[in-house]
Automatic annotation (TrEMBL):
Summary of the function given for this chain in its UniProt record: Mediates magnesium influx to the cytosol.
Membrane-spanning residues: 67-90, 102-121, 269-287, 293-320, 677-699, 747-768, 825-846, 858-880
Protein name: Magnesium-transporting ATPase, P-type 1
PANTHER family in the cross-refs: CALCIUM-TRANSPORTING ATPASE (PTHR42861)
Localization annotation: Cell inner membrane
Protein keywords: ATP-binding, Cell inner membrane, Cell membrane, Magnesium, Membrane, Nucleotide-binding, Phosphoprotein, Translocase, Transmembrane, Transmembrane helix
GO terms assigned for molecular function: ATP binding; ATP hydrolysis activity; P-type magnesium transporter activity
Top EC class, one word: translocase
Length: 892
């Protein structure tokens, strides 16, 4: 006899599934303490308390500790720790007692703490934001509780629950099938196989079958492609096969996006620069000054100055801010890194239904084959739509609504009893139900797409008489459909057959020799907002491509009404047997594709990506899942089927392209601010490198003390935390932005030397004018004590000038226009940069701080010199921007 206990629930080799699949269903129900009527609500609560929520746990048992480790274990903090350790030995351990100084080490540790704690806070905010946002998206399962079928949260599924499944559902837990009807399931998330396989409740596995292929078991994470079924849950959460697989792969990282790769490449560039420049600075200063210990300390400080310890913090802050902003506009971000892909997308592929149209289908006409409205056509269509247990779409609801208004549907329900059904699938493109009337006569009622219905019919009913379906009748039917299509109506055919097969043996093979009875014509009018939204998306540089299973006439009609220019239309069959080059040209030149299968939608997206496009796909049905997985960024809506919502990177709370257009703008804003920090930091660091190399080569002393360099870097990095709150130029937001590091070197070589020019001017003014005036002599004629004072005054002067130029470069390079005159940063950026520069300027004038930081007395008039240099710097930067933009369209 089957024994199921807590030990069984933690097996990792699917032993439980292997045992259950071979037992009688009644025994399994008994051992699980379940019945076909479902658990009671009180029993379900007890089991939920015992086993926990039906969720696969995170790979870390303590996510906060995991975030803390991630915040500090970065390449940049690693470099700082190494440098702090070296400084500890060079400044404290290996020096005389009266020269021991821990200030440099303390500053480095403060930098590590600020970067790490800020990153930790942002990571926690990210996690909390995603969790709270996802709570706004409903993911439910049809569960039988207290004898009633009801939609309940999927995370509340427990062992012993009875689950009802139809096309489009995700399997919420591991379950044994109790009943199935033409049930096909895709298990690609577990076995990688793209083709769905049939699941049969009454078929037990063979000895040689892999447990993943058991015909009577469904596993969490798989999805129902067609048909229907009912099963009992035997494992939830971490105890499922999917949960065990997730744990075994916990050490594997998620697939990297282009954004992740780009950030990694930037980090490599900066760390490589540090690895090359720091030793070079050490050698130059050691050789020219002869003091190798001070040269080492200065090289360490230089390396710290070149380390962008705030990069991870600013990237995370940007993404969190973007996700929160999107949430305000009814857009839920499931995967943070998808925000930049959203902003980069230059093609949006979408179905027309519900996106361009109102998603409110109306049954306009229920004609017989003579185009006359007859109650019989509506009655047959009602029987088909009402009695199906699969996924009722908008057309089914429209049929039921009209039938309720025009017919006595209660009487129809009394006269007909459902016997069986043959669920819809995307290959047949039709669905059937079998009913029995009071005369015990069985009737198969089928509705579906025109071509597929004509293929399985051989007779027609005209004027109450049954006639053979010949070529003439076929052409007449298609002509009438085409005429209605041109009026914007979507048309399906209705057919029936009496006494099709013995009870209990109905299948797709019975859908043959049908009698065509009439047309069902539906109107799905365009949304009032669609034309406006498409115009806005076009202005944003996004090309809309319609990928639909509908026919050309209806699609043209809707497309024309919403302002799409439709020159060429390809059908799914046109894409078959084409070479790769032919497909690339076809998807490039055409924006409307009709009569597509789900696989063809995915193929079109793959070809578009191969053509160099960043593709977003918006879908809400089971047939959209393959295309969503193929796209760079997938978008769905809260009302979508489970598989679509699970696959989506971004979920709209309302299916409206205007919401989408706003989300695109936010995505570009996030991307732009991230690139802004990266480019400004790269140019600033490169300029500092040049300045330090020049100073090290020609000055007889260090241009700035290590402690001063560290504080300078700390102040600049702190002010950069405001960049995620900056705004972007409207022109920048008007086009898609693709991630690329190819243009970064050019940006560095244009703007890095610009700041170095003014650093070198500052060196000259300090060395030949300011310092001699303060000391009373030139450096060459100075005594040892005067030389020390000379160098301290020089350090104070360059500290002030360098801090101001670094803060002003944010304003100078954030926008192509002239800063403070033609363009303005947000208030928080302006105040953070200017206030930090003012604080830094004040430090040499505050005696205790100046003494601790070893600043010399700097004359007040030098501040006027710095102001003049800043004005000239901004002017030169503006000229260089114009040179740069002659070859590059945009600055950032």
């Amino acid at each position: 006899m089957l024994k199921i206990n807590s030990k069984d629930r933690v097996v990792t080799d699917a032993t439980l599934a292997k045992r259950i699949a071979r037992e009688d269903k009644s025994k399994v129900l008994t051992e699980l303490g379940a019945s076909v009527n479902g658990l009671t609500a009180s029993e379900a609560r007890k089991r939920l308390e015992r086993d926990g929520f039906n969720e696969v746990s995170n790979k870390e048992h303590h996510p906060k500790l995991h975030f803390l480790a991630d915040a500090f274990l970065t390449p940049f903090t690693g470099v700082l720790v190494i440098l702090a350790t070296l400084s500890f030995f060079t400044d404290y351990v290996f020096v005389p007692t009266n020269q021991k100084d821990l200030s440099t080490v303390i500053i480095m540790l403060v930098m590590i703490l600020i970067s790490g704690i800020t990153s930790f806070v942002q990571n926690v905010r990210t996690s909390d934001a995603v969790e709270s946002l996802l709570n706004m998206v409903s993911v439910t399962t049809n569960i039988r509780r207290d004898g009633k079928d009801q939609e309940l949260p999927t995370k509340g599924v427990v062992v012993g629950d009875i689950i009802n499944l139809t096309a489009g559902d995700l399997v919420p837990a591991d379950l044994l099938l109790l009943r199935s009807k033409d049930l096909f399931c895709s298990a690609s998330s577990l076995n990688g196989e793209s083709n769905p396989v049939e699941k049969i409740a009454d078929q037990k596995p063979e000895d040689e079958d892999s447990y993943l292929d058991y015909p009577n078991v469904l596993y969490e994470g798989t999805n129902i492609v067609s048909g229907s079924g009912m099963g009992v849950v035997f494992a939830t959460g971490d105890q499922t096969v999917f949960g065990n697989l997730a744990r075994s792969l916990a050490k594997n990282k998620n697939k990297e996006t282009t954004f992740d790769i780009g950030i990694k490449n930037i980090s490599k560039i900066l760390l490589t620069m540090t690895a090359v420049i720091a030793p070079l600075v050490f050698l130059i200063n050691g050789l020219t000054k002869g003091d190798w210990l001070n040269a080492l300390i200065f090289a360490i400080a230089t390396a710290v100055g070149l380390t962008p310890e705030m990069l991870p913090v600013i990237v995370t802050s940007n993404l969190v801010k973007g996700s929160v902003e999107m949430a305000k506009h009814e857009t839920i971000v499931k995967r943070m890194s998808s925000i930049q892909n959203f902003g980069s997308a230059d093609i949006l592929c979408t179905d027309k239904t519900g996106t361009l149209t109102q998603d409110k289908v109306v049954l306009e006409r229920h004609y017989n084959l003579n185009l006359e409205e007859k109650p019989k056509v509506l009655e047959l269509s009602f029987l088909n739509s009402y009695y199906q247990t699969g996924m009722k779409d908008l057309m089914d609801k429209a049929i039921i609504d009209v039938a309720d208004d025009e017919l006595d549907t209660n009487n129809i329900k009394q006269n007909y009893q459902k016997i069986d059904e043959i669920p819809f699938d995307f290959k047949r493109r039709r669905m059937s139900v079998v009913v029995k009337n009071k005369q015990n006569e069985h009737v198969l009622v089928t509705k579906g797409a025109a071509e597929e219905m004509l293929a399985c019919s051989n007779r027609v009913e005209i004027n109450g008489k049954i006639k053979p379906l010949g070529e003439v009748e076929r052409k007449e039917i298609l002509a009438k459909i085409d005429e209605m299509n041109r009026d914007g109506l979507r048309v399906i055919l209705l057919a029936y057959k009496k006494n099709p097969a013995p009870v209990g043996e109905f299948s797709v093979t019975d859908e043959k020799e049908l009698i065509l009875a009439g047309f069902l014509a539906f109107l799905d009018p365009p949304k009032d907002s669609a034309k406006e939204a498409l115009t806005a998306l076009k202005q944003d540089g996004i090309t809309i491509k319609i990928l639909t299973g509908d026919n050309e006439a209806v699609t043209r009609n809707v497309g024309t009404q919403v302002g799409l220019k439709i020159d060429k239309v390809y059908q799914g069959k046109d894409l078959e047997n084409k070479t790769d080059d032919e497909l690339k040209q076809m998807v490039q030149e055409c924006n409307v594709f009709v009569k597509l299968s789900p696989q063809q939608k995915a193929e079109i997206i793959k070809v578009l990506r191969a053509n160099g496009h960043t593709v977003a796909y918006m879908g809400d049905g089971i047939n959209d899942a393959p295309a969503m997985k193929a796209a760079d960024v997938s978008i769905s809506v809260d009302t979508a089927v489970d598989i679509a919502k699970k696959t989506a990177d971004i979920i709209l709370l309302h299916k409206d392209l205007r919401i989408l257009e706003r989300a695109v703008q936010i995505g570009r804003q996030v991307f732009g601010n991230t690139m802004k920090y990266i480019k400004i930091t790269l140019s600033s660091n490169f300029g500092n490198i040049l300045s330090i190399l020049v100073a090290s080569s020609f000055l007889p002393f260090l241009p700035m003390l290590p402690l001063q360099l560290l504080i300078l870097d700390l102040m600049y990095g702190t002010s950069c935390l405001s960049i995620p709150f900056d705004k972007m130029n409207r022109q920048y937001l008007s086009e898609p932005r693709k991630w690329s590091t190819k243009k970064l070197p050019k940006f560095m070589f244009y703007f890095g030397p610009t700041s170095s020019i003014f650093d070198i001017l500052t060196f000259a003014i300090l060395f030949f004018v300011v310092c001699p005036q303060v000391v009373g002599t030139s450096y060459a004629g100075a005594t040892a004590s005067q030389k020390l004072l000379f160098s301290l005054v020089f350090s104070a002067g360059w500290f002030i000038e360098s801090l101001w130029t670094q803060e002003m470069v944010i304003h100078a390079l954030r926008d192509p226009r002239v800063p403070f005159i033609k363009q303005h940063a947000t208030a928080i950026v302006t105040w953070s940069t200017i206030s930090m520069a003012v604080i830094g300027t004040a430090l040499p004038f505050i005696t205790p701080i100046a003494k601790a930081m070893k600043f010399g007395p700097i004359p007040v008039y030098f501040l006027a010199v710095v102001f003049i240099l800043l004005v000239l710097y901004i002017a030169l930067t503006t000229v260089v921007k114009k040179w740069y933009m002659k070859s590059e369209k945009y600055l950032i």
